[in-house]
Amino acid sequence: METSSLNERPTAAADTTPAAEPWSADAVEALFALPFNDLMHRAHGVHRRHFDPNAVQLSTLLSVKTGGCPEDCGYCPQAARYHTGVADEALLSVEQVTAAARLAKQNGATRFCMGAAWRGPKQRELDRVIEMVKAVRAEGLESCATLGLLKAGQAEQLKAAGLDYYNHNIDASPEFYGEIITTRTQDDRLETLERVRRAGIHVCCGGIVGMGESRRARAALIAQLAGMDPYPESVPINNLVQVPGTPLHGTAALDSLEFVRTVACARITMPKAMVRLSAGREAMSEAVQALCFFAGANSIFYGEKLLTTGNPDVEADRALFAKLGLHPLWC
């Protein structure tokens, strides 16, 4: 039986940068196939070289505009075409967002993220979000927004308001993307990401696993993220939260150790990124979360709700951090 040295990459060096030697889907798939202990050892070593291995960045996510989205993302309960019990609500006021940001900061969050269920913001809507960004920054928090597709000039307006990060996930590998979403292409998403980069805003971009994709598709997703030049500063790894009424409800659940492998591969291929445990964390045991932190996850969403689905509450997270000897990363 053949074995792999911990210091031997299947096809490239562990700390490579996209400009020097891009990760291919084949190379990432080879990482996935390593013995679990070998993969964890490699991922933790990369993580420890670039970060405090016991520090976790805390973000809070608030849905500032819930429901009524015209898109057909198969995983999303906010799509107007699906009957999920999520109501189409009005955009929150700046005062409501400010109050939520203050509470998030009191609970230890350092980044406050605002999500809106739109295909993309109209100018009058963007004007309101800009005021929210300014209010969040005034509270001493990093700001992040996920507003859908951006038109020309909108990223520059957000940058001028002080936005630190823009989240826009590519969701799935190019080959699998069309199985999940048909109302916009992945190229549409990449165009928005390019506008964000050109405006000088940090990129938060990841994907969703557990949507029925193959391991090859998961490897291709990680390779695509790692191949961005530069790769995203923040990489959310989401595990599908199945919501009744959405097309993906009833999909076979992803094996927990396969999810941990995905986190490890993200860490190895994007060594300096913040790798975030995002959707699906509520269903993970403490042991699985601990493995994810060891594999290189160093950011979580912190608070009661992740857009429209549950999230581990603050006290539970504090108790887990105490058990693991973890502490918040102060930006």
Draw up the topology in text:
Elements: H1 25-32, H2 36-50, E1 55-65, H3 94-106, E2 111-116, H4 123-138, E3 142-146, H5 154-161, E4 165-167, H6 174-177, H7 186-199, E5 202-204, E6 207-209, H8 215-226, E7 234-239, H9 256-269, E8 274-277, H10 286-295, E9 299-301, E10 305-306, E11 309-310, H11 314-324, E12 327-328
Parallel strand pairs: 1-2, 1-9, 1-12, 2-3, 3-4, 4-5, 6-7, 7-8, 8-9
Antiparallel strand pairs: 10-11
Helix pairs in contact: 1-8, 2-9, 3-4, 4-5, 8-9, 9-10
Summarize the structure.
The protein has 11 helices and 12 strands. It is an alpha/beta fold and 331 residues long.
How does this structure look, described?
This protein has helices at 25-32, 36-50, 94-106, 123-138, 154-161, 174-177, 186-199, 215-226, 256-269, 286-295, 314-324, and strands at residues 55-65, 111-116, 142-146, 165-167, 202-204, 207-209, 234-239, 274-277, 299-301, 305-306, 309-310, 327-328. The chain has eleven helices and twelve strands. It is globular and about 50 Å long. The chain is an alpha/beta fold and 331 residues long. Residues 1-19 and 305-311 have low confidence and may be disordered.
Q: Can you tag this structure with a few keywords?
A:
331 residues; alpha/beta; 10-stranded parallel sheet; 38% helix; globular
Give the CA-based shape: globular
Measured by DSSP, the beta-strand proportion falls in 15-25%
Structural class by SSE content: alpha/beta
What percent of the residues sit in helical stretches (DSSP H or I)?
Answer: 25-40%
- What kind of sheet is the major sheet? 10 strands, parallel
Q: Rg from C-alpha positions? A: 19 Å
**Stretches with pLDDT under 50, minimum 5 residues:** 1-19, 305-311
Please tally the helical runs, counting DSSP H or I stretches of 4 or more residues: 11
Report how far the terminal alpha carbons are from each other: 46 Å
How many distinct beta strands? 12
Give the overall average pLDDT: 89
- What's the order of the H and E elements? HHEHEHEHEHHEEHEHEHEEEHE
